[in-house]
Amino acid sequence: MTILRSSFTGSRSARAIAALVLTLPMIQVLATPLMAASPRVKPPVPTPAPAPAVSPAPIAARVLYVNPATGSDTALGGTQRAPFKTIAFALNQAQPGEVVQLAPGTYNASTGEVFPLMVPEGVTLRGDEVAEGKNTIIQGGGSFISPSFARQSAAIRTQRNSAIIGVTVTNGNTRGTGIWVEGSNPVIRRSAFKGNHRDGIFVTGSAAPTIQNCLFHQNKGNGIAVTRSAGGEIRDNWFQSTGFGLAIGGTSNPLVVNNTIVNNQDGIVISDNARPVLRGNAIENNGRDGIVAILGARPDLGTSTNPGNNRIQGNGRFAINNATGNIFGAIGNQMGNSRLSGL
User: What SS3 class is residue 92?
Assistant: First the structure.
């Protein structure tokens, strides 16, 4: 299938401080007969102003290099000339603020990876950002116990303030998920999620990720699933040929902006008591419905003061299928002659 994918893409006014001018009384000096030479008094030597403080130059983040073909997991590794072999080993060495840089290649169990990979707090896992992960493939998954969803299978898990950039993630295991985000706030960008048995990314707990400029293609479950009380931002992504482009449930309230959601079974399915905000998305040519709302869901699809600007058309059945019994706003969207269902 050919994937047509679009190119992703003050300061405070200074206050005028009035100078306080102290006007000293003028002293009139009267001429008097010269009686004796007065000692000359040296004017006081002004104290030099202290030199302005100089901020230290920022220290470049340490980079740990990984290459599955030429690397070796030894204590002296991790340099560009002597890289580590596995992502798992490099992540165990990484400290907050450091970058684990992946060489192009496939990282899986046969190259020594142990899944799920855990990206520690404050650490960046980076492949090829320019190529959007096309040649840097993380393939596989491992089981773990989720605090909110029991035993799961994931390729990657995240901790607070971590980042994942420029990789392709595939977990073909039964119920396999690409990245599991629970109670953390990672940045995930310019990456691809293909062929995952369930979801490309699963977001749960109080998580608040930023997911941007990613491709979700041919995942059997959902491109992204968001549930529990999660929030965050899902922006400028492309969802194609998957189950549901996005599944949003629980009491979650993510901001979903400028995404392209095409040729899936359904575009976006919103359930439970979720309150997502949808702005500027193209939700088109999905097999069944563009947007489905069930149970107590109440999405924000646009208001009179903040129109939705979503384009919801060309879907197989309905543009919006409201099966909740609730009324919610959908102002300022382009739907052409598409059919609607429900209130």
Answer: helix
Cβ-in-10-Å burial (0-12, 13-18, 19+) of 304 comes to exposed
Q: What is the pLDDT of residue 38?
A: 42
Residues of the chain with pLDDT under 50: 1-42
Q: With b meaning 16 or more CB within 10 Å and e meaning fewer, what string describes 100-134?
A: bbbbebbbbeebbbebbbbbbbbbbbbbbeeebbb
Q: Which of 120, 133, 128, 93 is nearest to 84 (CA)?
A: 93
pTM for the model stands at 0.83
Interacting residues of 330 by C-beta distance below 8 A, sequence separation 6+: 301, 302, 308, 320
Beta bridge partners of 179: 156, 201
The DSSP letter of residue 49 is: P
Tell me the CATH class for 106-341. mainly beta
Compute the half-sphere exposure of residue 24: CA atoms within 13 Å on the CB side of its CA.
3
Token code pair at residue 340: 């609607």
Buried b (16+ CB within 10 A) or exposed e, 41-55: eeeeeeeeeeeeeee
Q: What pLDDT sits at residue 11?
A: 40
CA distances from 115 to 42, 250, 267, 286, 341 (A): 79, 28, 30, 34, 44
Per-residue tokens: 300 = 């924000």
On the CB side of 330, how many CA atoms lie within 13 Å of its CA?
Answer: 23
Give the CA angle between residues 179, 183, 188 to the nearest 5°: 40
Please list, in sequence order, all residues whose beta carbon lies within 8 angstroms of the beta carbon of residue 17, skipping any fewer than 6 positions away. Answer: none
- The amino acid present at 53, given as its one-letter code, is A
What radius of gyration, in Å, describes the C-alpha atoms of the chain? Answer: 30
